[in-house]
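Researcher: Hi, I'm a grad student and pretty new to this. My advisor asked me to get structures for two proteins we've been looking at. I'm not sure of the right format, so I'll just paste the first sequence and hope you can take it from there.
Model: That works fine. Here's the first sequence with its structure tokens right after it:
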Amino acid sequence: MTVLLLAGIVFTLILIMRQRDFASVGMVKNISHKMKGHSLSTNYWQAGIALFSVNAALFALAFVILFFLPYGAMAGLLMCIPLSLLTWIIFSEAWMGTWKDKVKMAFIGSSFFLLFLVWVFWYYATLEPAYPGDDLFMAWIGVIIASIFTTGAMCVSMFVILRK
């Protein structure tokens, strides 16, 4: 299981380092070229909401995989992280508006991660022990791990879309 997690981290780092190469792949060029004529390439609200929706859908897919496959967490991470990065690269390549609007689009699209982080903190703040003397230390560890993953996902997505 640790090997799968490390493979996912390495694969994600490769995607980030080679994003220029992936942006020139035929599939990405084809999809981004088809998007250039639509409002998703110039309207930051529509593009940001589309990115928000894609992030939410991929998170829901990873969540479903987590509960229905034996090693679902690793399978979900190995599948959903590259798909999310690919989506962000496609939107970055298709964008035809100003740099300021691209930043707004990126903030709207990555706000899913911020909302998830707020929910995690709210859940932990309202968590009550199941029985008297119950230790909530493991719940705190879960909050720390969720904070690291969501902050990392938000930073990576912003880095991918705001590259020049």
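Researcher: Oh nice, that was easy. Here's the second one.
Model: And its structure:
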Amino acid sequence: MILRKANSEEIPFIWEILQHGIQQRKKDGSDQWQNGYPNEKTIQEDVANNSAYVFTDKNKIIAYSAIIKGIETAYNIIEGKWLNDNKYITIHRVAASDSVKGKGIGSALFAKIEDICLRENIYNIRVDTSFDNLPMIKILDKLNYSYCGEVIMGGSPRRAYHKELPKNI
């Protein structure tokens, strides 16, 4: 499996995966992703900003994530405390294809994101999720992300997580 930057021709495939995620969140009774975000314009902006990544298996896109380098301004205010104030990347808009549900793709995707960080000498990852997104919370707990408190994203409170990566890998 390969994690790589997405291109504009892949936007329809990415949007299809995100729509599955939107429907799943709705089915789970969540308000997350039920207000028109994310949408195709969001993906276009991710691609234009070089933050759109696809996770592929045998050249088939099976998951998507935005990997954002630089400051996430919404994270400047946290009810709680980040592990540190060092350089970090932010993970947003994680979704996997229905065809790979329950196959550990989320954990594998996060492992590949950690590899990218280490290659670029970035040793911190921050991510947030809705309080009711139990599948994402389970992945973050499993992968030893630390719950740091609450941030506001798009006007809604979110659980904020942070992971420090070891520098000696």
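Researcher: Is there anything I should tell my advisor about the second?
Model: You could mention this: The two ends are 20 Å apart (CA to CA).
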